[in-house]
Amino acid sequence: MTKIIGLTGGIGSGKTTIANHFLAAGIPVYIADDEARKIMQLAEIIAEIKKIFGTSIFENDILNRKKLAAIVFNNPEKLELLNLIIHPAVKKHFENWVIKHGMSPFVIYETAILFESGSYKNCNLIITVTAPIESRIQRVIQRDNTTRENVLKRINSQWNDEQRMSKSDFVIENISAQTAKAEVNNILKILNIR
Predict the structure, then answer these.
(1) SS3 content of the chain, % helix, strand, coil (to 5)
(2) To which H or E segment does residue 109 belong?
């Protein structure tokens, strides 16, 4: 049976970079945020979002993710309501994806909120990616063209590294490209995948 390896870490820690190392090694990788973005464009999901958040976060019937983020990252109750719409849909999509990759001994499930969403309960192993806080902040500012204040709000809405690490089987310190790749290769050897 295919084993699920949860891959998590705070925003800006470099989870996608690590996920790409696993992908390059032939391990199927599911990027939950990417899939959630696609799922949020489905008519039934848009209808649910409109019902709870109204139409002001839509422009020409297209969801403005920045407006939605501004609401949910300032209001834990609203974030919970959004999660109640999105998480079950992503969970079902992932379950179908795992079936399609049933011949693989391992698959990677990459998400920032592995623990917060409860998805860690479905994982056989968990890898946490860490990085210095200033590196994380700068990466997200550059990637999302946002402010330091917005990044800190998002960081503070997630579990901290210590919480994640205490429940993880492996920790990858994403300080440099070379060391991160070496740590991925070490995990692959331990799991006897290479």
Answers:
(1) 55, 15, 30
(2) strand 106-110
What are the start-end ranges of the E strands in 10-95? 29-31, 58-59, 62-63
Q: What are the backbone angles phi and psi of residue 4, rounded to the nearest 5°?
A: -105, 125
Q: Is the dihedral of CA 104, 42, 150, 142 positive or negative?
A: positive
Q: Indicate if the pLDDT at residue 194 is higher than 60.
A: no
117 within 8 A of 82, measured Cβ to Cβ: no
**Please, how many CA atoms are within 13 Å of residue 139, restricted to the half-sphere of its CB?**
17
Of 45, 26, 21, 18, the C-alpha closest to 112 is 18
Query: What separation in angstroms does the CA of 59 have from each of 64, 65, 81, 82, 167?
Result: 7, 10, 21, 19, 41
pLDDT in tens, 128-183: 999 999 999 999 999 989 999 989 988 988 899 999 999 999 999 999 889 999 99
Nearest-angstrom CA–CA distance, 126 and 129:
10
**Inter-axis angle of helices 65-72 and 43-53, to 10 degrees?**
50
Give the tens place of pLDDT for each residue, 104-124: 999 999 998 899 888 999 999
State the pTM of this model: 0.88
